[in-house]
Amino acid sequence: MPMCRGLTEEKEADEEAQKICDAMKPLAEQRAERNFEVFIAQSYKTQLVAGTNYFIKVHVGGSSYLHLRVWKKLPCYGGEAVVTGVEDHHDKDPIQPF
Questions:
Q1: pLDDT for 74 beyond 90
Q2: CA of 42: how far to CAs of 4, 51, 60, 96, in Å?
Q3: Fewer CB near the last or first residue (10 Å), C or N of the chain?
Q4: Is 94 a domain residue?
Q5: Cystatin domain location, by residue (predicted)?
């Protein structure tokens, strides 16, 4: 069971992580000020807060990766997701909170 405010272990991306990436791609492109032809979730960690923070490693082409932070509100508050951070990274960079 995840601890509130603690990060889970890194997991291989699943359908849920990819769905979040698909929905958040336009917002990530806006924050990064560039477009991505490839936007594939590779792995992720979660953090329980007043909702859930998703820290997702996203392959964006070649050896380039983004770390995407998405906050998903609790269902009682609508359950919407918003991009709260984007950082450039490489394939070997571990997922860290930012």
A1: yes
A2: 24, 22, 10, 14
A3: N
A4: no
A5: 8-76
